[in-house]
Task: inverse folding
C-alpha cells in the first residue's frame, strides 16, 4: 500500500472497507470468470465474459450476477485483515533495524501473508464457487439435459451458503470446507510473492523526493498494475483451484482427484490454452480491487472511523 504511517487497526478497517466496495463493484466479472473456467469442451454455454453476463441477466435476472456475493461480503474483511496484518508482521520481523527490505525479504513477507490468508480464503472460495456456478449448471439442465447428472455430495435446488456449509460439514466435516486447500496455497502464495514487492517498487518509482510518499495516482496505478500482473501470472492455478472446488458438474465433464490429475486431464482434453480461461476477467477483477484499496487508503477511511469511535479514559 501507499507509504503512509497508518496504525494496524486503521489498516484492517481500510482493507475491510476496500474489500466490501471492491466485491460489490466487480463481483459480476468474478462470476463470469468462475463460469468460464468451469465449462469444459462439449458443454460450453458461454463464448466470452460479455456473453456470460448477458445470458446470466436474461436467465437469472440482474441479481443473478451476484450469486455468492454474500459469502464474499461476509468473509472479505477478515481475509483482508489477516493478509494485511500478516504482511506487516513478516515485514517488521524481516527488516534489520528499520532498514529497507531487500527484494528477497519482500517476497518472503508476501509468501507469509499469502500462506496465512488461506485460513479464510479457502472456505470463502469453496462456498462462492458453488453458488456462482449453480446458474451454469441450471442452464445446462435446461438447454442440455443429457449433459448434466448429479456430480457431487451437495445437490440442492437453490443452495444458500448456510445450506452448503451444513451439507459439507455433515458429509465430510471441516475438511469439506477446505477442499482445494493445496491449490489455494499454490495460487495465493505466488500471488502475494509477486504483488507486494512489485507494488512497493513501482510505487517507489513515483515518489516525490527521497522520503516523501508517492502521489495518489502513482499508488493507484501501481496497485492496478501489480494486481493485474500477479492475477494473470497465477491464473493457471486459479483454473485448477476452481475445477477442484466445484462439486456439481455435467456428466460429460471431467472430475479430478487432485492437482496433478487436474493438470493432466486439462492438458489432454482441452490443451494448454485452457489454463488461461478467465485470465482477462481475473485481471479486470483484481486491478480495480487494489485500485479501490488505494482510494480508501488515500481518503483515510480507517483513520476517520477510528476517530469517530468514543475514547475511554482509564
Result:
Amino acid at each position: 500500500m501507499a507509504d503512509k504511517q497508518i496504525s494496524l487497526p486503521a489498516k484492517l478497517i481500510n482493507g475491510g472497507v476496500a474489500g466490501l466496495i471492491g466485491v460489490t463493484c466487480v463481483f459480476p466479472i468474478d462470476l463470469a470468470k468462475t463460469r468460464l473456467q468451469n465449462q469444459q469442451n462439449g458443454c460450453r454455454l458461454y463464448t466470452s465474459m460479455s456473453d456470460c453476463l448477458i445470458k446470466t441477466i436474461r436467465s437469472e435476472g440482474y441479481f443473478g450476477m451476484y450469486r455468492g456475493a454474500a459469502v464474499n461480503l461476509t468473509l472479505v474483511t477478515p481475509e483482508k485483515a489477516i493478509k494485511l496484518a500478516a504482511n506487516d508482521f513478516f515485514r517488521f520481523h524481516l527488516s534489520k533495524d528499520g532498514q529497507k527490505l531487500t527484494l528477497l525479504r519482500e517476497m518472503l513477507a508476501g509468501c507469509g501473508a499469502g500462506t496465512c490468508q488461506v485460513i479464510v480464503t479457502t472456505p470463502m472460495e469453496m462456498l462462492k464457487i458453488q453458488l456462482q456456478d449453480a446458474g451454469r449448471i441450471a442452464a445446462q439442465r435446461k438447454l442440455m439435459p443429457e449433459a448434466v447428472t448429479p456430480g457431487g455430495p451437495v445437490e440442492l435446488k437453490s443452495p444458500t451458503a448456510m445450506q452448503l456449509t451444513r451439507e459439507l460439514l455433515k458429509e465430510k466435516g471441516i475438511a469439506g470446507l477446505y477442499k482445494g486447500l493445496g491449490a489455494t496455497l499454490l495460487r495465493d502464495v505466488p500471488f502475494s510473492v509477486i504483488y507486494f514487492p512489485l507494488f512497493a517498487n513501482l510505487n517507489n518509482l513515483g515518489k516525490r523526493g527521497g522520503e516523501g510518499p508517492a502521489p495518489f495516482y502513482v499508488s493507484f496505478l501501481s496497485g492496478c498494475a501489480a494486481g493485474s500482473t500477479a492475477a494473470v501470472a497465477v491464473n493457471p492455478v486459479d483454473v485448477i483451484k476452481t475445477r477442484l472446488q466445484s462439486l456439481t458438474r455435467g456428466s460429460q465433464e471431467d472430475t479430478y482427484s487432485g492437482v496433478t490429475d487436474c493438470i493432466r486431464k486439462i492438458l489432454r482434453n482441452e490443451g494448454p490454452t485452457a489454463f488461461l480461461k478467465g485470465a482477462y476477467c481475473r485481471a479486470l477483477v483484481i486491478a480495480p480491487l487494489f485500485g479501490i484499496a488505494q482510494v480508501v487508503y488515500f481518503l483515510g477511511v480507517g483513520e476517520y472511523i477510528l476517530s469517530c469511535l468514543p475514547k475511554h479514559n482509564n
Summary: The two ends are 34 Å apart (CA to CA). Confidence is low (pLDDT under 50) at residues 150-156. The CA atoms of residues 14 and 301 lie 6 Å apart.
